[in-house]
Amino acid sequence: MERFGFILHPLDVRKDVAKRFAVLSILPLRWIDLLSGYFPPVYLSHVTGIRSALGDEAEGWLVACPLTPAAMMRFPLHRVYRQIIRAGQLAERLGARIVGLGALTSSVGDAGETVARELHVPVTTGNSYTVAVACGAVQAIASDQGKPLGELHVAVLGGTGSIGSACARLLCRWVGHVSIVGRDAGAVWRLVDSLQASAPATVSGTTDLMALRDADLVISATNSAGPLIRPEHLRPGTAVYDLALPPDVSAAVRELGLAVQVYSGGYVVVPGNPDFGFDFGLPPGHTYACMAETIALALEGRYENFTLGRTITPEQVLKISIIAERHGFRAAPLRGRGGALLKVPSCVGMV
Ligand SMILES: NC(=O)c1ccc[n+]([C@@H]2O[C@H](COP(=O)([O-])OP(=O)(O)OC[C@H]3O[C@@H](n4cnc5c(N)ncnc54)[C@H](OP(=O)(O)O)[C@@H]3O)[C@@H](O)[C@H]2O)c1
Q: Residues 99-116: pLDDT tens digits?
């Protein structure tokens, strides 16, 4: 039996805190943010029933780092690291032989490197498989929107980040135009220059979210603590693939209904009959791509630091895709136009 641990944290703060601490959830949000810096890690569940297509089995433990998204972004880095490391140590004590970093625990600071140095078991952010799943989704969305891939204009919001920049680098090989949308102009232009040097696609960059209006498809992958994409940033007919945790797309955009198609992404179907023992609000057997990477590495017996830091290579994306698919993981179908379920193809043939 292979063993993994995975660290989550509250995303929808009131709802998630209420799942374990109903009394705390009624406090003002800024109090919950503050207190989350002092709470110990929380045991969430024992994950059972994972059985790979090759017959390998895995069990795991879900552990919560209590920090809220706002606390994660605002607290001094050493306090944030301390809270994530304590959660990782709890997973180690429970028996994990590799620990995955969920949502913003993989984005803060040096993206897992400090946490990996402090734990006795290897660590992965899960971002390589998340990139693979997102690139497969672009193919599915292009066909749902009736646009040839080679003519698609894709804007990547959070494009200078770990997942955003790796998606942009791969998409430059297949789509017509890639826009990098970030908030640090220097970082945006450095990335644009490096992509232009090697990519057949047109590459542009900006710090202005209004540029999202020019795109056919927006991939959203920021580490913002709250939603960023509002209705005025999009034109009717734009598609948005939002993989950020917490989501980047505001409720007001979703209320636009058919005018803008929002695809919630970054989800994977896990092989076997998994019981996560915890409700993420996903259909049975579904989880986040970052957790799927952690489980796939455990099933493969690859107890090593796999994705750490902010640079993800195409080779890492290919390697984890091959491992995950061999064990029977599949990108979860997307809810497309008219509510139809879209199969998300593998990106293996394209990387
Ligand atoms: N669905 C899944 O399975 C899954 C898996 C892994 C991660 N995620 C989520 O994916 C997201 C990205 O993760 P990551 O590891 O790639 O994070 P990251 O490396 O920290 O990158 C985030 C990027 O977003 C940018 N950003 C933040 N606020 C912005 C704004 N207002 N406008 C434009 N850009 C902004 C940041 O810019 P600066 O560099 O200027 O700060 C950074 O470049 C996170 O929400 C994470 O929780 C989801």
A: 999 999 999 999 999 999
Tokens 């734009």, residue located: 238
Q: How much distance in Å is there from the Cα of 262 to the middle of ligand 1?
A: 18
- Ligand 1 centroid to Cα of residue 314, in Å, is 19
Interval 196-244: pLDDT, tens: 988 788 999 999 999 999 999 999 999 999 999 999 999 988 999 999 9
Q: Which value, in Å, is the radius of gyration of the alpha carbons in the chain?
A: 19
Domain edges within the chain: 2-128+267-331, 133-266+332-342
For 261, the 3-state DSSP assignment is: strand
Ligand 1 binding pocket includes 314 (Cβ within 6 Å): no
| 231-to-68, 265, 279 alpha-carbon distances in Å | 26, 19, 30
Protein residue with least CA distance to atom 33, ligand 1:
182
Assess whether the C-beta atom of 182 lies below 6 angstroms from ligand 1: yes
| Per-residue pLDDT at 118 exceeds 60 | yes
Rounded Cα distance between 212 and 156, Å, is 9
In order, the DSSP letters of 271-333 are: SEEEE-SS--SS-TTEEEHHHHHHHHHHHTT--S--S-SS---HHHHHHHHHHHHHTT-EEPP
Class of domain 133-266+332-342 as given by CATH: alpha beta
Position 350 confidence tier, pLDDT thresholds 50, 70, 90: confident
pLDDT of residue 4 exceeding 90, the answer is yes
Q: Does residue 100 line the site of ligand 1, with CB under 6 A?
A: no
Whole-model pTM? 0.95
Closest protein CA for atom 47 of ligand 1: 103
